Amino acid sequence: MVMKCPICGNTENLTKNKEWGFNSYRVSRMTCPKCGATFNYYSGDSGTYTIPKPKEMK
Ligand SMILES: [Zn+2]
Questions:
Q1: What is the model's pTM?
Q2: Which of 23, 33, 34, 35 keeps 20 to 30 A from 12, CA to CA?
Q3: Is 5 exposed, middle or buried (0-12, 13-18, 19+ CB in 10 A)?
Q4: 46 C-alpha to center of ligand 1: Å?
Q5: How many angstroms is it from 47 CA to the middle of ligand 1?
């Protein structure tokens, strides 16, 4: 399985900030080093998908 940034499509050097279980899914909070987007990556029995999160302004 290949994780991919839902914003810019980058697949390289994605950073995993955190990982936890959600129902039958494993959720990873990822950050894209290319566009700075943060998103959640879900993987479970019914497949994998990503949930884009609003870009955090700091
Ligand atoms: Zn990106």
A1: 0.79
A2: 23
A3: buried
A4: 25
A5: 21
